[in-house]
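queue> pop job 88
queue> type: inverse folding (structure -> sequence)
queue> payload:
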């Protein structure tokens, strides 16, 4: 039997994290804000995560979304065994973990899905595996269904891509790489920097990245940098590959990236507005932001909503604030160089903005709602947002505030924020830029 790993790192298991962008409720809200009709989470729905790793995200989302049937797929038996153990310990009934490769999915009996998600997969697998995924999406995603896909992006990787190649070259003589080899590779690169290798001299970004990497988890680095396959993509190339699976680009899953006024300067916005082709415009936005990682939502023919319909749907979205840890960032920074304070001050500030500029008010509210790495709380809230949208009296684990009136912020203590139920309600969980973000 040929090597099942297909060049993917299997000597060490992947890290265990929850990624809020995988939440169907979070995706729905993001789509709604963009006016794209999302799948109906008040009805039964089916969700598949491809390359689910340890299955933590899939299991947690299943627990929080009793109306969903979840499937996690991964070819690493250690990952699937761990995921099944988690499922059994937590007694979660509505999730199944399958030990299958992407290539095997075509011959596997699976339902049609409303959501297919792949996080930290597309840039780290072969072209054949990407084609297998596209073909799976083509045959298993329902009309109106959503695909979440993240990948390393160009041009952000352009100056630092060679660093990854340097790591690989330094360990090429070994048949199998494990975490101790990661240290060796980082040390070698550090030494070359000290010896003033031309690459580091003309690429300050590479040295800065090396400093950053040395602080990250070795398991994460092993999967990120030492795979046989590794490729960053321009947005337009990914969009072209997915077009073949009948997918069209919906939006970034990060709502803050929707707001041109914060991401780009005035003249940059004007230049972007002159670009006629949507894929080219999105790709060129990445040049302005020097984008290094993308989290995209694609849809299979989802309907564009009219303003009134969108507003009505947004009114039904229920948000609940959860306590935030001390690691919450004090500021949200944008590629344009602007930053917004992230906390009580912003809430006060946002009231002023509201009176002057509706768009900025929306931004402020989005920034005020916090997310990121708050395992256990954010995800459950996401799930309940969707799972209980049809039940106005449902309590959010005892944390839900009374529904706010349209356009009103309820502030109940330093961390309390219940979003308005008006047309501009928004929540986004913001993870870190890297796919694993395993510090
Ligand atoms: C970086 S991990 C991401 C895990 C998970 N999505 C997360 O974000 O925590 C990528 C996963 O894809 C799986 N994988 C890679 N190639 C695969 C293939 N050809 N078929 C099935 N799974 C694959 C790996 O075993 C690994 O668990």
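queue> result:
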């Amino acid at each position: 039997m040929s090597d099942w790993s297909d060049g993917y790192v299997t000597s060490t298991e992947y890290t265990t994290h929850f990624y809020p962008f995988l939440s169907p409720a979070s995706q729905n809200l993001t789509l709604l804000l963009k006016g794209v009709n999302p799948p109906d989470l008040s009805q039964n729905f089916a969700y598949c995560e491809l390359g689910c790793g340890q299955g933590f995200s899939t299991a947690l989302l299943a627990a929080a979304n009793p109306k969903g049937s979840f499937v996690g797929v991964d070819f690493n038996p250690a990952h699937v065994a761990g995921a099944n153990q988690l499922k059994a310990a937590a007694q979660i009934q509505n999730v199944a973990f399958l030990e299958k490769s992407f290539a095997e999915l075509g011959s596997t009996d699976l339902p049609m899905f409303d959501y297919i998600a792949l996080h930290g997969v597309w840039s780290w697998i072969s072209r054949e595996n990407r084609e297998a995924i596209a073909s799976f999406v083509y045959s298993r995603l329902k009309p109106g269904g959503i695909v979440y896909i993240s990948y390393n992006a160009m041009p952000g990787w352009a100056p630092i891509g060679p660093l990854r190649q340097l790591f690989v070259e330094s360990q090429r003589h070994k048949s199998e790489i494990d975490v101790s080899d990661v240290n060796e590779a980082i040390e070698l690169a550090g030494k070359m920097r000290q010896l003033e290798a031309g690459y580091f001299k003309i690429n300050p970004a590479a040295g800065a990245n090396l400093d950053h990497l040395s602080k990250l988890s070795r398991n994460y680095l092993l999967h990120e940098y030492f795979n046989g396959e590794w490729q960053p993509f321009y947005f337009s190339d990914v969009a072209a590959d997915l077009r073949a699976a009948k997918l069209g680009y919906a939006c970034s899953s990060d709502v803050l990236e929707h707001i041109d006024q914060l991401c780009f300067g005035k003249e940059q916005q004007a230049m972007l507005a002159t670009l006629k082709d949507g894929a080219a415009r999105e790709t060129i936005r990445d040049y302005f932001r020097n984008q290094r990682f993308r989290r995209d939502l694609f849809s299979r023919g989802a309907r564009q909503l009219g303003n009134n319909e969108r507003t009505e749907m947004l009114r039904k979205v229920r948000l609940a604030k959860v306590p935030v840890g001390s690691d919450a960032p004090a500021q949200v920074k944008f590629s344009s160089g602007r930053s917004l304070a992230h906390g009580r001050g912003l809430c006060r500030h946002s009231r002023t903005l509201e009176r002057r500029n509706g768009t900025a008010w929306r931004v402020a509210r989005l920034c005020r709602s916090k997310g990121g790495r708050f395992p256990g709380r954010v995800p459950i809230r996401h799930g309940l947002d969707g799972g209980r949208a049809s039940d106005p009296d449902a309590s959010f684990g005892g944390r839900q505030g009374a529904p706010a009136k349209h356009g009103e912020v309820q502030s109940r203590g330093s961390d309390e924020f219940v979003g308005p139920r008006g047309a501009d309600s928004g929540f986004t969980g913001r993870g870190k830029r890297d796919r694993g973000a395993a510090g």
